[in-house]
Specification:
With 343 residues, this protein is an alpha+beta fold. It folds into two domains: 218 residues, no CATH class; 104 residues, Immunoglobulin-like. The protein is 31% helix and 28% strand. It has 14 helices and 16 strands. A four-stranded mixed β-sheet has the order 1-4-8-9. It has a four-stranded antiparallel β-sheet with strand order 13-12-15-16. α2 crosses α11 and α11 packs across α12. The longest helix is centred in the middle third of the chain and has 14 residues. It is globular.
Length: 343
């Protein structure tokens, strides 16, 4: 059998989610996603650090330091989403409950890039492994015969996790140095409309040409992709000169928080520091007025916040709002005032 036949069989017989085997998955934070869409390339960790284009570290520094240099010199893809690593680092996590107490084990606004798996496998430079490359690595293979021998039932399993399955769910594909995303990009997936809007606003601000090039790929995926873990923004609205922001209250967040608090033997979490930036923008993208408001937010029971009586800047055409937890961007919202005048 060739790659296409094996992939078809995996979709029909070996995957808990029938469409997963069609794709290779690259998982990152929204700030890194903007850099990827700006350049049109995925870079290995070595190259991304050298070029200073990695805005968010994503992974535990302890794991990174243990990972063999060959893996760090490659662009890395997963065979599937919902890996054990994703469970620990998806979404903004309070600093006291991050994986191994490592501040870098944090992907505040997760984004998935999906690529055509068959096309990647047919590239002569591509290698793959049945287990993950983090830490001390796993044997690397290439070619259709080696691919056919992988244990896809375990790689694509969604059953109760065991130590053995942890290894298989981290199965990877590696491509050396840098990867042209235009070769086989299929989709760029976000958790919800707020996070999609944030990615699109950041990209349009960074590179308007590539915004129009890639906007058709940027979509929302609500099932079989994200854990809905961590604290994130679920709604941001502007009405009657007020900004209202709502936050997540999901079971995965509650489960993870309680589990980590027990493990770390802590009974409460101090509030997180948040701040919101307001920019009133005039003609030709001119900044007319800027203000910042800081506030504390209860991580466990985050209540909606409202900012009222905002200044009215006569020449302003647009209001830009950026919300941060610590220094991590969580939401980028824009409101054209012309839209308000029409209501």
């Amino acid at each position: 059998m060739g790659y296409s036949e094996i992939i078809k069989e995996n979709c029909e017989k070996h995957s808990s989610v029938s469409w997963w085997p069609k794709f290779a998955f690259h998982y990152t934070d929204v700030t890194n996603a903007v850099s990827i869409l700006d350049t049109g390339y995925l870079y290995s960790r070595v190259n991304a650090e050298r070029m200073k284009i990695m805005k968010n570290d994503n992974a535990s520094r302890q794991v990174i330091d243990m990972t063999i240099s060959e893996a760090a010199a490659h662009v890395r893809f997963y065979f599937r989403p919902l890996t054990p690593t994703q469970f620990f680092n998806e979404g903004y996590k309070h600093i006291d409950i991050r994986y191994d107490n490592d501040i870098n084990a944090n992907v505040p606004v997760p984004v998935f890039f999906l690529f055509d798996l068959e096309k990647i496998l047919k590239m002569p430079e591509t290698k793959f492994s049945e287990f993950g490359q983090a830490g001390y690595g796993s044997p690397l293979y290439s070619g259709v015969e080696a691919f056919s021998r992988l244990d896809f039932d375990k790689i694509y399993s969604c059953s109760t996790i065991t130590k053995e399955l942890v290894k298989y769910r981290h199965a990877e594909l590696l491509y050396p140095n840098f990867f042209d995303i235009n070769s086989c990009l299929q989709a760029v997936l976000c958790r919800n409309s707020i996070e999609k809007m944030t990615l699109m606003n950041l990209l349009k601000e960074k590179n308007s040409t590539n915004f129009y090039k890639y906007k058709q790929y940027i979509k929302i995926c609500r099932e079989n992709m994200f854990e809905n873990n961590g604290l994130f923004i679920t709604e941001c609205t502007f009405h009657d000169n007020k900004i209202s922001i709502s936050f997540s209250d999901t079971y995965p967040k509650k489960y993870y928080t309680e589990r980590q608090m027990r493990k770390n033997q802590i009974s409460e979490l101090p509030p997180i520091n948040a701040h919101i930036e307001f920019d009133w923008i005039g003609k030709k993208d001119t900044l007319l007025y800027h203000t910042v408001t800081e506030f504390d937010l209860d991580y466990i029971r985050a209540k909606s916040v409202t900012f009222s009586n905002l200044p009215k800047i006569n020449e302003a055409k647009n209001l830009r709002i950026k919300l941060f937890f610590d220094d991590k961007l969580m939401c980028y919202y824009q409101q054209p005032f012309a839209d308000i005048d029409l209501i």
